[in-house]
Amino acid sequence: MGLLESIVLAVLAASTPLLLAACGELVAERAGVLNLGVEGMMIVGAACGFAGAYVTGSIVIGALAGIAAGAALAAVFALLTLGLAVNQVATGLALTILGVGISGLIGAGFVGERIAGAPHLYIPGLTDVPFLGRILFGQDPFVYLSLAIVVGIWWFLYRTRAGLELRAIGDNPASAHALGYPVLRKRALAVLFGGACAGLGGAYLPLAYTPFWISGMTAGRGWIALALVVFASWQPGRLVAGAYLFGAVTILQLHAQGAGVGIPSQFMSSLPYLATILVLVVISRTRGRAGAAAPASLGTVFVPDR
Amino acid sequence: MLVLERRGESSTAIAIASPLIAIALTLATIAVLFALLGKNPLQALAVYFLQPLTDSYSLQEIAVKATPLVLIAVGLSFCYLANVWNIGAEGQFLIGALAGGWLAVATQGTDAGPWVLPAMLVLGAVGGALYALIPAICKVRFGASEILVSLMLVYVADLLLDYLVRGPWRDPHGYNFPTTAEFDPVATLPLLVQGSRLHYGALIAVLVVIAATVVLGRTIRGFEIRLVGAASKAARFSGFDANKLVVTTFAISGALAGLAGVIEIAGPVGHLQPAFSPGYGFTAIIVAFLGRLHPVGILFAALFLALTVIGGEGAQITLKVPLDLTKVFQGLLLFYVLACDSLVLYRIRLVTPQRRTADGVA
Amino acid sequence: MKRMMIGGLLAALALGASTLVAPAQDKLKVGFIYLGPIGDFGWTYQHEVGRQGIVKHFGDKIETSYLENVNEGPDSERAIEQLARTGHKLIFTTSFGYMDPTVKVAKKYPDVYFEHNTGYKRDKNLATYSARFYEGRYIQGQIAAKMSKSGVLGYVGSFPIPEVISGINSTILGAQSINPNIKVKIIWVNTWFDPGKEADAAKALVDQGADVLMQHTDSPAAMQVAEARGKYAFGQDSDMYKFGQKAQLTAIVNNWAPYYVERVQEVLDKKWTSTDTWGGLNTKYLLMASYTNMLDDVKKMAEDTQAAISSGKLHPFKCPVVAQDGSTVECKGGTHLADEQILGMNFYVKGIDEKIPGK
User: Fold this and answer.
1) Which residues in chain C are contacts of B166 at CB distance < 8 A?
2) Facing residue for A230 by CB, picked from B148, B331, B332
3) What is the CATH number of the domain that holds A237?
4) What is the value of ipTM here, to two decimals?
5) pLDDT tens, residue by residue, B227-257
6) Is A40 within the bounds of a domain?
7) Within a domain: residue A298?
8) How far is CA A240 from CA A12, A16, A247, C200, C314, in A?
9) pLDDT tens for the 359 residues of chain C, in order
């Protein structure tokens, strides 16, 4: 396997959990809800995903368990921020604390266990094509699923009426409500979807990436996912680019070290973060006042008048 | 079905009752949780909430733990009141520690005078403010999201601290372990109470709370900040410059976070080492909201949060409860407090569902 | 039935109430401060296994407590002091970063015994202890050199602290004793564990030609990568055979229970003194996991080396040790480097091409 090919494969895998979690958060934020609890939802997804797969021996059940766990946590968030109009920022942070705690409790019994990781696609003939074969046709199902979700989200947001409603709700919930759109219900669904995706993204880690459970194994990826949504200006296409860019810089700095590049490793480790800031600044400059790309009501509370 | 309805005017009765209701709900949940685990719920409550209040050591430790939280959260409240989302206080905290720590390391072993500590504090505040200006300027000049930039910079600050402490600033007599030498006495915060860890930083925190209350409540700038957050269009019509406010609030927030950072290392820690912060910058965000973005509220919220942390340690020791359970409990407690707080602004009513009008979508 | 229920309820209440006013126990209370979660299957996990070892050994004579995820900053001083204040008479702090906080608390509580792991500051009531991990690394280096076809080893490093550096050096010296031209690639992940990142680093090392992996990080991620790619790897802190049944050659397993049992017994016998214990293979504070996936002659070589190191006949850092810049390191320990030199090692030996980060 050539070096470039293996780098691309590594990048795809490293970026997938970020992409999955960011997808869900993008939908929630397009509806105007800022959920900072992505890290918490990801890690409960990881713990429950591993538990499900270990107990039943099925990756699919594990993935479903991860999705359910993330969605359940998101439901608590929705109850508080949508049902009781609680501040979203604070609730999201509390959700992260809760999620980390719950994941530790659930995962405690599974430390030191392993499962067979998710299988990779293999199409005789196609997968064997040099270079492109494994990249296009040799991934595990999560990678393909993440891309499918991105396409699905794009189609939903820009090509369906329901998506149009969602975007309207995110930009101006008061007007949307006046038009009769069920603001709270749609926001709740968006939040649940966000939780499901975060749970799936978290479950990816112990189901496919490193098939075991260890406390805290998401290691801050939820925060990166949050940043990626902003980086992508809330657009699905840019999200893919952002996730893979971040993954690429992360992987490349490791390769650079292995190749003996003598720059301090801390600087190399900081490259993904610096690169993200730089690209964002450049993009925002060329688009002018791109801050306007944020859903206008993001983070604010909405209580329907009666 | 149950719906939320905004109250005409905030109810003072509820404002006082809400934290109490939250606590009651939490106590009830803990009772159930612990009973399920086979632990004595009354004992659990005592360990979490009462024990830390019963002796002077724990009380002092609560103050020590709350000090950086108060400082950072007050700074954050300036930002959040103006709807400016500074999520990078942790990074500003670290950079402030580095800025002040630089002076401590540079004057180590030399017979420098008592000017060192005040200079460190100033440097810490300035360093934090400058670091916070990066996301502020990115937002004002390039329209880049301050959430993203400030968050990314947290990781950068952490790695910078790591690099400096492992490399150029490493203690030459420290067996090459990543830590600076202990700070000289002139670079250390004096203690308020001998024999404990309570230091002058706590006093500084209280002064900051008083100053912030005055600034936010009684000065034009404070009024601007609160107005921009509550009604940005009205603020713009009144001639307030939103961009200047972004920069100002970030600078204030960064300065306070940086001050908290240098106070931590000149006080309880006593030197620089990697990862010396247990995430104060992020915990402070919760404190800011728990305190309803008011300096005095923040003071109480910080003390309360510190109480639960110390109570949580006690629970691990005396009740043999795993840390994860404490985290679950903390998360739930926060949820209850936040939920009950919303009752101050809203009431819950039972209404019969209404039919939708013709041009609406069901 | 109803009476039984009421009786049971009353009994439960009484029991509950009695625990609130329980009299002070005479058991020895032993406390532990952990850096990570006990679920990390690595460094902290093995300390926890050690704690469970003394619980099993001493049963009712002792009571233990632990605090996990204790940050190395100001929180740790409070955590240690909390243990001291709640009647714990023997406290183990299991990470280097707890050194100064332990020193401070030890001064305040002269009646409590403190044991600091991997540090170097001691006091009348403060002892230090660690294990000579570099001994295990030497054996691993020899095995790696025998098993590597590409002649390139891959090292997943956490932080460039002396303990890690001495581990790398010992590995290379061991490898050079078999293949003087052995090469090593080192990637620093700047964390003690982040399984995803460790896996990424392991993949990068394999992509760049390494076919035997070593690690100084905590999770089995690198082992799994080796298994998936058909390469070899060494487990760290714990036996990782489960994660690499075709890949694991051996593992360095931390085994703290014997030391903990010994020290607890000394406190019970009132014979505890402040010591500096740096236990090697001969003390069993570190164990080598079964030698697997290798031919018998390699296994014999490893066992012979292990025996030689245990008996003191062979020292990984036997003089002369040549540093990366070609100079010979001053030999302060007679025939081998002195303990302080190993404890504070901050140079690479000759044969490593890369530079230590930050120098």
Assistant:
1) 159-161, 357-358
2) B148
3) 1.10.3470
4) 0.84
5) 877 776 677 777 778 888 899 999 999 999 9
6) yes
7) no
8) 10, 9, 11, 20, 55
9) 455 444 444 444 434 433 443 444 578 999 999 998 887 788 999 999 999 999 999 999 999 999 998 988 888 999 999 999 999 999 999 998 899 899 999 999 999 999 999 888 899 999 999 999 999 999 999 999 999 999 999 999 988 888 899 999 999 999 999 999 999 999 988 888 788 899 999 999 999 999 999 999 988 899 999 999 999 999 998 889 988 999 999 999 999 999 999 999 999 999 999 999 999 898 889 999 999 999 999 999 999 999 999 998 999 999 889 999 889 988 888 899 988 888 888 899 999 988 887 65
Chain C contacts to B (CB-CB under 8 A)? 16, 19-20, 31, 37-38, 65-69, 71-75, 77-79, 81-83, 85-86, 96-97, 100, 108, 120, 159-162, 190, 340, 343-346, 357-359
Given a contact cutoff of 8 angstroms between Cβ atoms, the answer to whether B201 and B263 are in contact is: yes
- Nearest Cβ partner for A89 among B6, B289, B361: B289
Chain A to chain C, count of Cβ pairs less than 8 Å apart?
A: 123
Is A282 inside any structural domain?
yes
Query: Which one of A280, A287, A297, A300 makes the best mutation probe of the B interface by having the most chain B beta carbons within 10 Å?
Result: A280
Partner residue facing A265 (CB), from C41, C190, C207:
C190
Position A305 in a domain: no
A 216-245 residues inside an 8 A Cβ radius of B: 223, 226-227, 230-231
For residue C22, give every residue at least 6 positions away whose Cβ sits within 8 Å of its Cβ, in sequence order, or none: none
Q: In this complex, do C346 and B176 lie within 8 Å of one another by their Cβ atoms?
A: yes
Q: In this structure, what token pair is assigned to residue C72? A: 């190395």
**In contact, A243 and C229? CB cutoff 8 Å:** no
* Domain range enclosing A209: 3-293
Alpha carbons within 13 angstroms on the beta-carbon side of residue B160 total 19
- Residue C255 CA, distance from chain mean position: 8
Residue with tokens 């730089």: A278
Q: What distance, in Å, lies between the first and last C-alpha atoms of chain A? A: 64
Give the domains, in start order, of chain C with CATH numbers: 27-131 (3.40.50.2300), 134-254+288-343 (3.40.50.2300)
- Domain chopping of chain B, boundaries: 65-294
Q: Which pair of tokens denotes residue C188?
A: 């620093």
Query: How far apart are the CA of C295 and the nearest CA of chain B, in angstroms?
Result: 39
Please name the member of B274, B275, B314 whose beta carbon is closest to the beta carbon of C82. Answer: B314
- At A131-156, the pLDDT tens digits run 787 788 888 899 999 999 999 999 99
* Rounded Cα–Cα distance for residues A91 and A257 (Å): 40
Enumerate neighbours of A (3 or more CB pairs within 8 A): B, C
